[in-house]
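In the design runs reported in the main text, the only information available to the sequence generator was the tokenized backbone. The following block is the verbatim input for one such run; it is reproduced so that readers can re-run the procedure and compare outputs position by position.
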């Protein structure tokens, strides 16, 4: 690995560590909004990298109040352009719904709320990467949410 790649890797690692440190201090509501914001920003960067190398024109698509200026539009565009998989699209749409619930419901909402918990358990990628392999390793038929 080149020194430049190693430096970039360290920069990303530091950024993620800082994000997680901040994230772990937050309430459920703030954590949901913060996590969705992180994903939204990465979708913006993904789309910007895919588009032509004309910053002024891509800003006209990607900035707030522009056609691709919000999380939902970015999710759909990235999927329709083949930049994210169907599972990633599914999970990002669920995360968007979770974020919106936290952002718009004023009282009594947490990751323990039935609707939020059920949506989190419906995320495909954690199921494929963590829960199903864990079930197989532990020979468990199902992993059920806490009551």
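Verbatim output:
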């Amino acid at each position: 690995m080149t020194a430049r790649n190693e430096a970039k890797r360290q920069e990303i690692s530091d950024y993620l560590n800082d994000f997680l440190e901040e994230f772990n201090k937050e309430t459920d509501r703030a954590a949901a909004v913060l996590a969705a914001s992180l994903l939204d920003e990465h979708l913006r960067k993904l789309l910007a990298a895919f588009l032509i190398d004309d910053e002024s024109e891509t800003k006209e698509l990607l900035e707030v109040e522009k056609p691709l200026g919000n999380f939902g539009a970015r999710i759909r565009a990235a999927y329709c352009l083949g930049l994210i998989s169907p599972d990633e699209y599914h999970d990002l749409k669920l995360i968007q719904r979770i974020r919106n619930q936290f952002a718009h419901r004023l009282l009594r909402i947490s990751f323990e709320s039935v609707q939020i918990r059920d949506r989190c358990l419906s995320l495909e990628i954690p199921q494929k990467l963590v829960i199903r392999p864990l079930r197989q390793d532990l020979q468990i038929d199902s992993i059920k949410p806490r009551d």
